[in-house]
Design a protein that fits this description.
The complex is a heterodimer of chains A (181) and B (152).
Chain A: H1 2-19, H2 24-40, H3 43-48, E1 50-61, E2 70-75, H4 76-86, E3 93-103, E4 109-122, E5 137-152, E6 155-171
Parallel strand pairs in A: 1-6
Antiparallel strand pairs in A: 1-2, 3-4, 4-5, 5-6
Chain B: H1 2-20, H2 28-31, E1 34-36, E2 42-46, H3 47-53, E3 62-68, E4 71-82, E5 85-98, E6 101-109, H4 117-131
Parallel strand pairs in B: 1-6
Antiparallel strand pairs in B: 1-2, 3-4, 4-5, 5-6
Helix pairs in contact in B: 3-4
The chains are: A alpha+beta (181), B alpha+beta (152).
Chain lengths: 181, 152
């Protein structure tokens, strides 16, 4: 009886230890879910997928290549606030072009490299739009995201993202972007 | 015997948890102090009142950090859209408790934002003066004055 109990405890411990480790399939499913969530533009759900100490490093090259790129670091709070601002948008498209997953040796984290093309309205910085449809151009953002994902409270979350973004402006009639919300 | 021992363990664990987890925001008796500049009259507004008048409450992104026994740092930030892309705009204010006041002693901020404590405080005090926010008890007497204080 004691032997059986000891065996059961051993099996349970091994299972628990396994629970804290990532599998490539879990990470790929998480990225699919994160992309689907991003397409809803619903900030609370987008935010939930970021860890409590999430940081974003962004390098952004504007369409006008004479301008120097902007580069910044923001924390989770600011990221979530910006996500909430995007809830106002009505036209949005996100396409993933590639995805690579590399598990860490201890399988507690994984490095995810993905390329995206994101299309959304472009509002000039000094113009206050009258409505979400009050724009002349779309901005097509081609990005290469290098993220670290890991487990937090049993859920897979983004721990950090390093995004290199290139903006391209196109006439609003030249591209077809779905209406969301 | 097992009962009291378990109770003691729970109490010790709770005390340890409380000791190890520092508060994320300054206590009320810190934010209730009158905001001022070193060497100046008080502003007549409590730090907490000034922050609320500036919209720095609720879900507004802000980070408090304890940097000393009676010293707290507050960072607020947002992204602004510029022609070359998003830019981070931030201000970090250091507040130190001195007697019955809390002094704004240091400022760090992004380009275009006030860089000195005096300029930063002048900007922070615009909102409570414009809204005629509730002053601290010291300034309820009509004869008292305060730094930039405009009586209703």
């Amino acid at each position: 009886m004691r032997y059986l109990l000891a065996c059961s405890l051993l099996v349970a411990s091994a299972a628990l230890a396994g629970c804290g480790k990532l599998k490539e399939r879990d990470v790929r499913e998480f990225i699919d879910r994160a992309d689907a969530t991003a397409r809803t533009l619903y900030a609370p759900h987008i935010c939930e997928l970021r860890g409590k100490d999430f940081t974003l490093h962004l390098k952004f090259q504007a369409d006008d290549t004479r301008l120097p790129p902007s580069e910044l670091d923001i924390n989770r709070k600011t990221f979530c606030m910006e996500a909430a601002k995007n809830a106002w948008l009505r036209n949005y498209k996100l396409e993933r072009k590639s995805l690579e997953v590399e598990l860490a040796a201890d399988r507690k984290t994984a490095r995810v490299t993905a390329e995206y093309e994101e299309t959304l309205p472009y509002f000039e910085p000094d113009v206050r739009p009258a409505s979400p449809f009050d724009f002349r151009q779309y901005q097509v953002l081609s990005s290469r995201d290098d993220s670290i994902v890991g487990l937090e409270g049993g859920d897979v979350v983004f721990l950090s993202t390093n995004a290199d973004v290139q903006q391209r402006l196109v006439d609003k009639h030249d591209v077809d972007v779905p209406v969301v919300n | 015997m097992a009962g009291p021992a378990m109770l003691l363990l729970v109490v010790l664990a709770f005390t340890g948890y409380r000791m190890m987890h520092k508060p994320h925001e300054p206590p009320r008796d810190f934010t209730d102090l009158e905001l001022s500049l070193p060497g100046e009259d008080g502003s007549c507004y409590a730090l907490g009142t000034t922050l609320v008048a500036n919209g720095l409450f609720g879900q507004t992104p802000r980070t408090w950090k304890s940097t000393g026994e009676n010293e707290w740092q507050l960072t607020v930030e947002r992204l602004i859209q510029a022609y070359n892309g998003p830019a981070r705009e931030f201000s970090t204010w250091t507040f130190e408790k001195h007697g019955k006041a809390v002094e704004l002693t240091k400022v760090e901020s992004s380009e275009g934002r006030p860089q000195e404590p005096r300029a930063a405080l002048d900007e922070l005090l615009r909102a409570p003066n414009a809204y005629h926010s509730t002053p601290v008890d010291r300034c309820k007497d009509p004869g008292t004055t305060g730094y930039h204080f405009k009586r209703k």
